[in-house]
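Input chain follows. Return structure tokens only.
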Amino acid sequence: MTKNYILGIDAGTTKIKAGLFDIYERMIDVESTNCNVLLGKNGEVEMNMDETWNVVVKVIKALLERNEGVKNKIIGIGVTGQGDGFWPLGKDKKPVYNAVLWNDTRAKDIVLKQGEEVKEICSKNNIVPLFAGAPTVILKWFLENSSENIDKVQYIIHCKDWINYNLTGEISTDYTDASTAAFDIKKREYCEEYFQILGIEDFYKCFPKPGLSQKIIGFVNKIASEQTGIAVGVPVIAGAIDVAAVAFGIGVEEKGQACTIIGTTLCNEVLIEEEDVDLCNEIGSTLCYVMPDKYLRIIASQSGTTLLDWIKNLVGSNINFDEIEKIIASIPIGSEGVVIHPYLYGERAPFKDPSACGAILGLSAKHTKANIFRAAYESLASAFYDCYSHMPYEIKEIFAAGGGSNSIILCQMFSDMINLPVKKNYNEENGILGVVKLVKKSLGITEKNLDKNKDFKVFYPDYENHLKYQEVYNLYKMLQVELRKFWGQRQVFS
């Protein structure tokens, strides 16, 4: 019997991955490489779009070269990628400017200037609230500050859409990504009134009409085949934003199931029904899900494992994370009074303040870098709890995903903090698995996942530790309130 394979691509903020799965959802192999992120002095975070596609080509070629005989047995391709941001193309469908990423903060003043009228439009039309990294906000910034670049824009797409275009020559998007861009998630259409209020109505038609994540949007063309080694004619689906793909890959399919992606951001999401959408407010966002008539309620802290990387580079660049976690184990809960705030890129949830900044507080002469390391981990646990405390839903179970979920100490902290079991599965590529499952749906493949019943690693809460972590959280929260005035006033120096 001939084996067939599905190719999944995950274009993240820091890495791009390509993975081969069989039709039973078993991973055969994966290849990854780092992305080149361009940082500016005023909050700019960009990627060169052509370079990003070249990296995708590189990982696909490496994967296929290592797995001889596979390239002609690939029956479908699905792509997931980082969300929000601004990926502009001109009339020739070539990049007009670098991609501006979701964590870019140059447009924070645009958010601050928008008043109650825009909030009302968002609330009335079930639109994700404004934040600095949203496509429409970045578009508005370019109109006001760099019109020579924006005048050439014909298409405004998303990260995965750029990869799909290079594979097929087709401009498209799906409902999950469209949800981040002036999109009424109930009507599943863009809101013209929003574009008018924000003064970007001339660009209304630059956003492609979305469809289902599993819809086949095109087929691998000759150019992409020559570049990657994939056979001409392989179907490519629309794909999904990374947070939705991960949730679907890990098994979030019922109301009340939650997923925390401990990655570049700390993304916390719970599956809800349409009748629950009205419970949502301007904190966080609600996106269309890959399952029709389902939604993801998302409250994502802006900083995730980026905080741990930053702290490591600051005070412990000569040691690895395994050594750091051994050090942490010797420090009691509460880090002996050291508290860290993770707001290195401002914050969008569970509160929205682009002027928020990170802080290391409570230091005295007795403290060492071990206290700072532990406080950083506890900071993420506090941010995690802060996000879930704003979810107006009953949480049935929490799955952990993302690179940070490989940390035993971090998963246990999360469980103790929220006083619920946290489940971590053994698949390392849930985002890719999510789009692989969508490809199967698009092709009508019904073969069951042979590993579906494979055990999860479950972290159970310790109630005594939970009480201690609540004290940590209370201190974290108190300082969050007290420092807000400082965040605003320090802007004159930043």
